[in-house]
Amino acid sequence: MFPFDAVLTDLDGVLRHFDHAAQSDIEARYGLPLMKTAFDPELILPPTLGQVTEAQWAESIAVALGGDERARQAVAEFTAIRFWVDEDVRALLARAQERVPVVIVTNAMDTLEEHLDRLGLTYFADDVVSSARVGVAKPDPRIYEIAAGRAGVAPERCLFVDDRLPNVEAARRLGMTGVHYRTYADLAAVLAQPL
After folding, report:
1. 1 in a domain, yes or no?
2. pTM score > 0.85 for this model?
3. Which domain, by its residues, includes 51?
């Protein structure tokens, strides 16, 4: 018997991956601290909570880096970085979905739906809980409660998967089973069970 009634999974770092080597290359070519600036809590939180758009976030990064044309070009390259789906993880989640709902729970921006479409994931999950749409972000317990509610499952019957340990720990505090995702094997050990 499958031990969970729903699987709640993060998107970035689990199902979707970015070209981090290209990000490092852009930083090196421009000599600008793009990652540190882009993910500064003061800049990243407003778009994650749906208070500003991704375009406004990009402009705020450029301004923080000096506001000149060179900074804007660096940010444009940085925000256009290539991303892709981990097909092995997708297959594993699709197999779980034969038994229980799978809900994507992600700290995202207003462009999430467009990104899911580009990835071919628009109709993949049973539901998507985007922080930009619900106004709360992981590790706030409310986003986990929203996701469990959308799945129609009590939190203690949910498996939660995320590549960030603080997010996993927050889910565990609600009674969820948490998987700290680092490699495919972390998830496969829990989900790769026979039907």
Report:
1. no
2. yes
3. 20-79
